[in-house]
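Quick one: sequence plus copper (II) ion SMILES, need structure tokens.
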Amino acid sequence: MIVSRRHLLRLGGASAFLHGANTAAWAQVQPGHPAAASPTSSETEPTRPADYTLRIATSLVELGPDTTVSTKTYNGQFPGPLLRLTEGQRVTVDVYNDTDTPEQLHWHGQFVTAEVDGAAEEGTPFIPAHGMRRIEFVPRPAGFRFYHSHVAAGTDLSAGTYSGQAGPLFIAPRHDPGAYDQEIFLTLKEFGPFLTRTEMPVDMLVPTDQVPGLHEQSVAAMKAALAAGMNQGYELAYNFFSVNGRMLGQGEPIRVKAGERVLFHVLNASATEIRSLHLPGHSFRVVALDGNPVPRPAEVPVLWLGTAERVSAIVEMKQPGIWVMGDLMDEDRTRGMGVVVEYAGREGEPQWRTPQPYRWDYRRFAMDDAKPQEPDEIIDMVFAARIGARQGFDEFTVNGVSFSMEKMQPLFRLTRGRRYRLRMTNATDDVHPIHLHRHSFELTAIAGHPTGGVIKDVAMLGSFQTMAVDFTADQPGRSLFHCHMQQHMDFGFMALFDCGS
Ligand SMILES: [Cu+2]
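Reply:
Sure thing.
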């Protein structure tokens, strides 16, 4: 999805090509829903069209001339249409579900009500199979967000974020910095998932300090499980790799001119994978993480993004040529995880050069003398795994509790207005991109090192490491906390915060 600013202005935003679906399905708007209660809804203006219409259906995605996959998408395309909203300006969205299974559409990174957020665990009604929901919300905060399916997939590798249900969403701030020539959205995504027992460990975070003893405990637990006849839990692997739904070399290149400043909004829409991005001969000046401006923009040679993370970075185009911008993992990049960057007037084969190893450190973008305010309360959380314990998958626990989709019991009670610190310990050997719904949080310690000023909604917690994040409980109702890797959340790695009504 490559959209110049002028082009967007001409279209009047994405809505110009999203209008048009009928709104006759009013009767299916659920009672008690804000749209149903609103005086401008069905009773007075039954034909008022929605600002946006999203339609969930199984469709074909042509990753390349010889490779087409069948998957559930929004509006028959992958990624879903870029939604450009304005902070504070209420929107109405009709979501139609043309599939045989109920769906949830999650507005990732936004401060919306539990009724709208798109998580059954919080109480959001499902979009019924062959039905629709009209939802209404006030977009905020400004920045790069996204929307995606939020149903449990379990062993169904066609469901949830394994499918093509993901799309970028940008909430325009009231004051646009405007210091760039082109703005380009990149959605990184694999298709064709399958299960394996081979794990590809990714070791790319700093600081590297681990909690003493946890690694040894994990090795001992694995040995005991194997001795008891258990198998190592399933891991996800993929057949196809793409940027904006196209394998490397199969889509339109990104066309640039020497001297241009290009603002990239990169979304890792993978169901389970950590992704990286490098453009040989160039560096990324990271200006925002998860859509939130960082206190200290900094240049890095490589971007690393956990599942559902976003990075906004400006690249100064000063190495004319034809380049591969792609993932560091050779196998994944050559099979599609990349996109060609083409300077005007240049020709030839796209060039790739492997950079020096580069470790990702959120503190690079933090305040120099970070002194986060003391929270009102500290919540300790320990994440652990039971090897291969559920349907051959590892079962995850938060403070000893594996989340039950049947009971949906809140594990933590919050008091509105109080500031909380989640002090997390990862007792597993995986990196977990932890995510809190309906709030942003501030990174306040990474592996025991204090930090401050970086505001996110997903953050990678390293294996056997600790991390602390602070947030203010300013959203009534339930907010879901979970690891964003689909198989981890499906097999227990979720917890509900209840902030009353
Ligand atoms: Cu996880």
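Confidence is low (pLDDT under 50) at residues 1-46. The chain is about 10% helix and 40% strand.
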